[in-house]
Amino acid sequence: MSDTDFATEELARGLGLSTRHLYRKLNEITEQTPANLIKEYRLSVVEKLLVTTKYSIEEVMYKAGFNNRGSFYRLFSQKYGMTPKKYRESRIEEDLN
Q1: Which residue of 2, 3, 24, 83 has the smallest Cβ count within 10 Å?
Q2: HSE on the CB side for 89, CA within 13 Å?
């Protein structure tokens, strides 16, 4: 996942499908695009790394395959309703209580 160039084409190739066939299959199953599925998976990796490691936010971002800090923060905030730093702090506080 740390490969920032990993995209729909690589996913389709890895699954032995054409890009078009991958779109159709995923739409039937999840009603999501392959790009959205990859993005959601990367965000779940970020969430896990934030909670289970002491990596900096920047390191977590790169390990999950994001290379644009602005879009990473925007996507993370949209999904979790707060910045990665605040999310980590809230989860640590949650675990302490």
Answers
A1: 3
A2: 5
Q: Is the dihedral of CA 19, 79, 49, 2 positive or negative?
A: positive
**Contact between residue 75 and residue 42 where contact means Cβ atoms under 8 Å apart:** no
Supply the pTM of this predicted model: 0.85
pLDDT score at 24: 92
Phi/psi at 73 (5° precision): -65, -40
Whole-number CA gyration radius for the chain: 15
Helix ranges (H only) for 1-97 are 8-15, 19-29, 34-52, 57-63, 69-80, 84-96
